[in-house]
Specification:
single chain; 75 residues; mainly alpha; Erythroid Transcription Factor GATA-1, Chain A; two-stranded antiparallel sheet; 2 helices; 2 strands; 49% helix; 8% strand; flat; binds zinc ion
Length: 75
């Protein structure tokens, strides 16, 4: 397999570009988090194209991320 070390735009983890199905992200989670940010920052993403399950996952990830941000701000 080809090797190309790239940094995930979400979690900044280094991974092999060719080994990820979710590039430019390292994992589905990072891809969804990024999509979640899109959804929260601007509603230009056609939400109706997502399945209910995907939307639920996104909401959970956004909540998780917001909780993390909250923690950071309190320190
Ligand atoms: Zn990542």
């Amino acid at each position: 397999m080809k090797q190309l070390a790239v940094t995930c735009p979400n979690c900044k983890k280094k991974f092999n570009y060719y080994s990820s199905e979710f590039r430019p992200f390292c994992s589905e989670k990072c891809r969804l988090i990024d999509l979640g940010q899109w959804l929260t920052e601007s509603y230009t993403v056609p939400v109706e194209k997502l399945t209910e399950e995907e939307i639920q996952t996104l909401e959970e990830l956004v909540h998780e991320k917001n909780a993390e941000e909250e923690k950071k701000h309190h320190h």
